[in-house]
Amino acid sequence: MKSLTGALVAGAVAACIGAAALADPSPLPTASETSQTNGFVGLTIPFGPQGIQPPHLTVGMRRASVDGAGSVQGGELSLSIDPFDLGNARLRVQVLSGNSAVQGALGVGIVVGSGTVFATGGVLGDGVRVGGDMPFANPTPDLFLQLDTLPRLAPAETAALPICAAILCVD
Fold it and tell me: N or C: at which end does the chain have fewer Cβ atoms within 10 angstroms?
C-alpha cells in the first residue's frame, strides 16, 4: 500500500509539473506566429530487448507555437496505458522543438505503478513518433513506436501588407 501511495503522489507531482510546463506564459502570438493546442489519442507499440510487446493506449495534449518560418517550440503531456498491466502506465512531460514537419522531444516521465522515474525523448512526424524511455535506475532503454491523431503543425501565415492606392480627384 505504501508503494501505491508513493506512486500516486509521484504521479500527482508529475502531473502538476506537466500542467505548469504546458501553461504558456509567453505573450500572445503575433501575426507571424500561431499557437496551437491539440488533444490526441494514439497507439504505442513498445519494443526492445524483449521484442515487440502488446500495444498501449496513449492520450495526451500538445501545445506548440509555430512562427512564419515553420519553427516550432512547445510542450506535451501524455499518459500511456498498458491494458494488460495498469501498473505499467507511463506519464510523460516533454518539451518540443523543431520545424513544422519534424520535431524532437525531450522530457521526463514516471511509471505510475512502481514510481520509476525515467528520461524520455524521441522524434515526431505526421502522426508518428519513434522514441525511448531510459529509467534512471536501470540504463536499459525502452523503445517505442507511436501512431497518433496529432495534426501537422502548420507554419503561421504572414500577414499581407495592405496595398494603399491614392485616388487623385481633379476638378
Answer: C
CB 137 within 8 A of CB 118: no
User: Per residue in 88-119, pLDDT tens?
Assistant: 999 999 999 999 899 999 999 999 999 999 99
Beta strands per DSSP E along the chain = 33-47, 56-67, 71-81, 90-99, 103-111, 117-125, 128-135, 142-148
- Cell for 80? 500511456
Q: What number of residues does the chain have? A: 171
Bridge-partner residues for 103, per DSSP? 98, 124
CA 124 from chain centre, in angstroms, equals 9
C-alpha 50/C-alpha 6 separation (Å) is 28
The rounded distance, in Å, linking the Cα atoms of 86 and 52 is 18
Q: Residue 23 corresponds to which cell in the numbers above?
A: 501553461
Whether 16 and 110 have beta carbons less than 8 Å apart is answered as no
3-state secondary structure 97-140: EEECCCEEEEEEEEECCCCCEEEEEEEEECCEEEEEEEECCCCC
Grid cell for residue 35: 499557437
Q: Measured between alpha carbons, how far is residue 116 from residues 4, 8, 83, 169, 171 in Å? A: 12, 12, 19, 78, 84
User: Does residue 145 contact residue 129 with C-beta atoms inside 8 Å?
Assistant: yes
